[in-house]
Task: structure prediction
Amino acid sequence: MREIAGGAVDRGWDSCVVVAADDRRRDQETRAGTVVVRTPTLARPLSFPLTLGYGQALAEAEADVLLVHEPTLLAATALRTRPSLRGGFGRIMVWWHSDIIRQRALAPIYGPIINHHLTTADRIIVATPHHISSSEVLPRFADKIDVVPYGIDLSRYEWTPERAARVEALKEELAGDDALIVSAGRLARYKGIGQLVAAFEHVKDAHLVVAGDGPCAGEIAASAAAQPRRLTMMPHLDAQMFVDLLWAADVFAMPSIHNSEAFGIAQVEAMACRTPVVTYDLPTGVTWVNRDGETGLVAPLGDIEALAQSLQQLIDDPAHRSELGEAAQQWAHATFDRKDMLDSIFSVFDSPQPWQPPNVALQLEPAPHLLDR
Result:
């Protein structure tokens, strides 16, 4: 949302973001040229914000384009209950990030709202083709869906002499002569962190770093794998050290086990640092991003033994690891650049016809503009 709002300002558009506040106060500010309106939130039952004045804030934000990020259901509910809102916007775009997973039992309630929302939207945007094929609601709207991969600022991940010195010292400190496996993200059960730790118990000649915090942190700290020189937990990292850690990693593990993981931006960040990725075979965008045998390895979903074998395979074969890492970096630069995402999004805004980015072949040849690791 921040990237699109900033991209609009850079293109000379007026930009406004309407969101639910974290508390009961209404707030409005201008940040980097974008007006940000936060409406008061009374409670968040089942993660759905009960906020006051959201529909009115939309009514006051008349625009040529309304881009709705779903599945929050805030704008969808407002547009369904107040049909007059539709007239205030030239076009309505829905960026569908994921199906509703945790609250799917409530589908009889929210289903009609989603169906109306997607039916009346001018275009629907998703990050990968797998978002369509793995969805329970999107396939019937396929004729108005555009695929725009998420983009990141790749300049943050550049290899420099200063970074090289930090990375060498960090890897020596954490792993010594062992291979370094890194996993990063919120330590929640759907992220599969428990399965990764269980798999790591069977992995040899490696050190595991778990970066992040969350409800499963205590479980990891108490696991059999949490031994000196075997596992390090790093709950708080600044941006520079996080990127250094991704460069230091020999393998990046993202063992998410639930469709709540619809993409996995962290694996793109690892690829930008020339680090191969190991994931489970989720039907979501996870395995569109990480391509088995090309940018990393993919283990059968929930198979802890296979996950351990995939990690061990890359640890034992540095040449294959390097080959996958180079291809992963090529894929990241060819497909997940922030500028390309913004150009694509605004092409969708400007075009009444379905828009698709050009097919990107996975190039295995070294790119002359990328610095050697």
